[in-house]
Records
---
Amino acid sequence: MQIGGPYRELPAESFPTRPEDAADNPALRDDVRAMLTESLDKTLPLLIGVQRAARNSDAR
């Protein structure tokens, strides 16, 4: 099974010039949080369903 996450193009100005400044960049942080939330909303139900199905088949 292959699970793909969301893809969103982020504006270049969202990225800090130094990688160590990424955590302090509110625009980048908000964009990444939104993408992570979208990804989890789409993939967790599928993953939980697959795990439950595997457990049910193991119990037989």
---
Amino acid sequence: MRFIVRVVINAFAIWVVTLIPDLQVRVTPFAPGETLQLVLTLLLVAAIFALVNTVIGTLVKIIAFPLYILTLGLISLIINGFLLWLTAWVTSWFGFGLTVGDFWWGVLAALIIAVINGIFGIILRPQRQRRRD
């Protein structure tokens, strides 16, 4: 269930990023390109992004751990941009999906996606019940 919620939030965040034309991040829906196809394409891209972030992102973050310490965590911006670019590369195999025009705009887009995911993560985090003793 958490994976589905994560995919939906990622799809929303990617959609928000595509609304900013200067970032050069676009989602090309599969044919015929109506609203339903755009939503399904966003969900597919978000699922691929979640899988890339989970599998490859974890491996890259483990390898880059010393860089996290040296840069006080700022390397995560570059790594997240790389993961977004990697998602665009994977989805390009299908003939539809995510396109990222420039790597550095992709880094900024990944930062915006991370902020949106963080906000929704705080909102949707299950609240612990406090025990009254």
